[in-house]
Design goal:
InterPro entries: P2CMN_synthase_LarB, PurE_dom. This is AIR carboxylase family protein. Pfam families: AIRC (PF00731). One of its GO terms (molecular function) is hydrolase activity. There is one protein chain. By secondary structure, this protein is α/β, with parallel strands linked by helices. The chain has two domains: 111 residues, no CATH class; 127 residues, 3-Layer(aba) Sandwich (Rossmann fold). It is built from eleven helices and eleven strands. The strands form three sheets. It has a five-stranded parallel sheet with strand order 8-7-9-10-11. Strand 5 and strand 6 form a beta hairpin. Helix 1 runs antiparallel to helix 2. The longest helix has 16 residues.
């Protein structure tokens, strides 16, 4: 059932209550059935697209392949495309045996099940990394943004240690509607890019770096304390969160694309 169908069913149910055709207690039970599916170990959110624009995403880390498969089957019944993040190659192979139509992005460790064609936006999101070591986090952002219909341009390995590389791509970055900057070490690239563009910038600190990087905390603090305006910071290694938020921003003014 799609988000529009869920909204339609809720409206019918409320009409029945207002006309005394359905009791309040029966309506509550029916609403619970419409909004989630109880699998015992998980309560799958079936109404998230109706509320938030995008369906629930499966977080694969900590779940078995069998659990991922069952949740995927539940979401698949709604007719939506399904995204699962943080899926190891071993889990992917098990999933693919049950659902051979899934596509795996090994660098991003994301699984996509595409049931209907994805229409890409004309405006694009630029995903910029400081180094090659940040690519896995960046690719999670790319896979997420593309899943939700965004054109994406990758600009990788342009960190401040060789800042001339950034300037070679500055025009392309400036033309993006939203920019994601992924950086580890000290995270300085975010402030540099933020001072050169007029688009929203989503900063992603990564856990890449030597000891005093503290697993990404140094980059996180640098980004949070940046004096460049218009910067939003997500959590360490959270490429998914950056891609999701960037998609919402890139679709502003074209809400019909989310239906």
């Amino acid at each position: 059932m799609t988000g529009m169908e869920i909204n339609s069913e809720i409206k019918k149910l409320l009409d029945c209550v207002s006309q005394n055709k359905t009791s309040v207690s029966d309506a509550i039970n029916e609403l619970q059935h419409l909004q989630s599916a109880d699998l015992g170990y998980a309560k799958v959110d079936l109404s998230r697209k109706a509320r938030n624009g995008y369906p629930e995403v499966i977080y694969g880390a900590g779940k078995t392949a069998e659990q991922i498969i069952e949740i995927m089957h539940t979401l698949k019944k709604q007719g939506e495309n399904v995204l699962c993040t943080r899926v190891s190659p071993e889990k992917y192979h098990e999933i693919a045996l049950d659902e051979p139509n899934v596509k795996y992005f090994s660098e991003a460790q994301c699984v996509q099940l595409i049931q209907h064609e994805i229409q890409l936006t004309s405006d694009y999101i630029a995903v910029v990394t400081a180094g090659t070591s940040d690519m896995s986090v960046a690719e999670e952002a790319v896979a997420t943004a593309q899943m939700y219909g965004n054109q994406v341009k990758r600009i990788y390995d342009v960190g401040v240690a060789g800042i001339h590389r950034l300037f070679e791509h500055l025009d392309e970055i400036r033309k993006a509607k939203v920019v994601i900057v992924v950086a580890g070490m000290e995270g300085a690239l975010v402030s540099v890019v933020g001072g050169l563009i007029n688009a929203p910038l989503i900063a992603v600190p990564t856990s890449i770096g030597y000891g005093t990087n503290f697993g990404g905390v140094t980059a996180l603090m640098t980004m949070l304390n940046s004096c460049a305006s218009g910067i939003t910071v997500v959590n360490i290694d959270n490429g998914f969160g950056a891609g999701y938020s960037a998609s919402l921003m890139n679709h502003l003014g074209t809400k019909e694309n989310l239906d």
